[in-house]
Write a structure and sequence with these properties.
Shape: globular
Number of strands: 20
Order of helices and strands: HHEEEEEEEEEEEEEEEEEEEE
Largest sheet: 10 strands, mixed
Strand content: 35-45%
Structural class: mainly beta
Radius of gyration: 28 Å
Helix content: under 10%
Number of helices: 2
């Protein structure tokens, strides 16, 4: 009956009712267009050392952390300064050599912790870092390619509040496994919730590989030979979870022993052990 009554209306009345119905409700809003994520490139070289010279590392680009107090990890080496037995450039490579020797008792080993000079261009805020390197092999060695801040400005102005980026860490008792991590106030290894991952690199100690980092305002991503295997993401919850918004510099070192490197003892007869570095390159970040 309703259908008959509706269709029995004059054509003009029917058109008027249809028009009224069409204008009584506003059109549904269109969904907002998605905001495209920023795209970045890393093509412009900002700073580098190709190690195409001889002698000590270039003092206009590198300096040293010195001492043997364990470095917060109960490490056994004494880090020396400008000592060619521990750090030198030869054959087109930087050599960082850990040696079994009692140069500074009670430390039974010597090594070097080389630091890029931020005041000479050796630091960056966002960008790409590439280090082509061959790692030492002995049980008890703990080489690292990593970054710390130029300015310790957050929280208690110390570690871990101000962040650490580990581009590459390797412990000799775990052959062929390379690790990348980030540490900050909210996520770090003492609370066992650091952001971290590992990748198999079977020839890490017998061949050169490119260990790289791409750092943007949103992510920190680690690569080996162009393969991404670890990403730490910005939660936008404050410096406690993301202190990586200002310049960081690079560190290259070989530790001996320590809470991680020495977990399964030290093969004392395998020393000296060398970290070989073919080049270090920093590239600027560009938003496209």
């Amino acid at each position: 009956m309703k259908y008959l009554l509706w269709t029995s209306l004059p054509a003009t009345a029917l058109a008027w009712l249809l028009a009224l119905g069409c204008t009584s409700a506003p059109p549904a809003p269109r969904p907002a267009a998605p905001v495209a994520a920023p795209r970045y490139s890393f093509k412009e070289l900002a700073w580098s050392d190709e190690f195409n010279y001889g002698g000590l590392p270039d003092s206009t680009k590198w300096t040293y952390d010195v001492g043997g107090h364990g470095w917060g990890n109960k490490e056994l080496q004494f880090y020396t300064k400008a000592r060619p037995e521990n750090a030198r450039v030869e054959g087109g490579h930087l050599v960082i050599e850990a040696r079994r020797e009692m140069l500074n008792p009670p430390n039974a080993y010597t090594s070097t912790r080389l630091v890029s000079r931020g005041n000479r261009g050796g630091s960056l805020t966002y960008g790409r870092v590439e280090v082509r390197a061959q790692l030492p092999a002995a049980r008890g060695t703990w080489p690292a390619i990593w970054m710390l801040p130029d300015e310790w400005k957050y929280g208690d102005k110390s570690w871990p509040a101000n962040g650490e980026i580990d581009i590459m860490e390797y412990v000799g008792y775990r052959p062929g496994v390379v690790q990348a991590s980030t540490h900050c106030q909210k996520y770090y290894f003492r609370t066992n919730n650091q952001k971290t991952d590992s990748i198999s690199v079977p020839t890490a100690t017998t061949a050169f590989h490119v260990y790289a980092l791409e750092w943007t305002p949103e992510t920190i991503t680690a690569f080996v030979d162009g393969q991404a295997y670890f990403t730490s993401r910005n939660e936008h919850s404050g410096w406690q979870a993301w202190p990586w918004d200002h310049p960081f510099h690079l560190l290259l070192n070989v530790a001996v022993g320590g809470e991680w490197g020495g977990r399964h003892g030290i093969d004392a007869g395998a020393f000296p052990q060398r970290l070989l570095v073919d080049y270090v390159r920093f590239y600027k970040l560009k938003q496209e």
